[in-house]
Amino acid sequence: MLRYLSKSLLLLVFSVVLLCVLYPLVLWVIGQTFFNSQANGSILLGPDGKPVGSRLIAQPFTKDEYFHPRPSAASYDASASSSSSLAPSNYALRDRVARALGPVMKYRSGTKAGESVAPDIEDWFKKDMYKGRPHIVAQWADQHNSLAQAWVTSDPTHEAYVNDWAKAHPDLVRKWSEENPSTTQPKAIDLAVMFFKNFSEINPGKFISVVTHKRADGKEQTTLQPVHEGADIQSTFCLMWLEEHPDVDLEDVPGDMVMTSASGLDPHITLQNAWYQLDRVASKWAVSLRRNPADVRKEIEQILRDNTWAPWGGLAGEKFVNTLEVNLAVHKKYGAP
Predict the structure, then answer these.
(1) Percent of the chain with pLDDT over 70
(2) Element (H, E) at 214
(3) Which helix or strand (DSSP H or E) is residue 302 part of?
(4) Tens of pLDDT along 187-217?
(5) Is the separation of the CB atoms in 176 and 194 below 8 Å?
(6) Which residue ranges make up each domain of the chain?
(7) β-sheet bridge partners, residue 43
């Protein structure tokens, strides 16, 4: 009996040592020796030598000086990889795509061929008329409650702004409570539609956006203020503008510029997408550096070429660039914006 038990114990020890010690140790040695970067997360370092991210996961670049990745259904959160799974008929998807298109769309033909559509969206918005009725913002909030509520919850400053409005308009809050007796203590998200309706009446042709200005001490301060132009208007009301201009002839936009990947984390964009963004990136850097735009554009073009790759060494498939690698190369050449 003891003989069989001892053999079983020896076999157990041998199995544990082999599978739980030797096997992981061999894999660790091989990984650290031959695949060091991949084994440690494919981490990229910034100019200061500190880790800035993984070349496998996209990051939300938003400044005009940098190339932007494709949209993410997971908010670029590596622990929540997912696609949106929204159908083409879903208004939330069409709105998200339109928001991405607003600041970048260009006319294909006519007297404005090649020009940006964004200024015309702003001019249309300032007139404050949609389908023959006034108050575009009020109509937007009334027709798409979820979008108005999403605006409130998207940023703590937005929620605070609506709460301050509620304190200044107790009569309207009381009216909302009377119309919704099941909610005795309405929150900012509950008041979103009424807030935008009231805002639109007081501020026709304007929306709420972050405005940066210098204080008396020279420091910059950001506040929410009514505005009649800017990226928020170009993106938020692009879909309504398109609905009022169904026959406008626009340039095609690279699909990966407005559609998410299956993982929601893909850091790569097509070279076509990068070329589409090149004018914005180069012109912004030219202003920042006070240099000739043509010279800056040529330098950034070379950065794109140096960082372009395709499957099978370019023998098949689309050409891509990694947004983090390209932006690091731009940052290394020009410094911080």
Answers:
(1) 100
(2) strand 207-214
(3) helix 293-306
(4) 999 999 999 999 999 999 999 998 887 777 8
(5) yes
(6) 28-84+260-334, 91-254
(7) 54
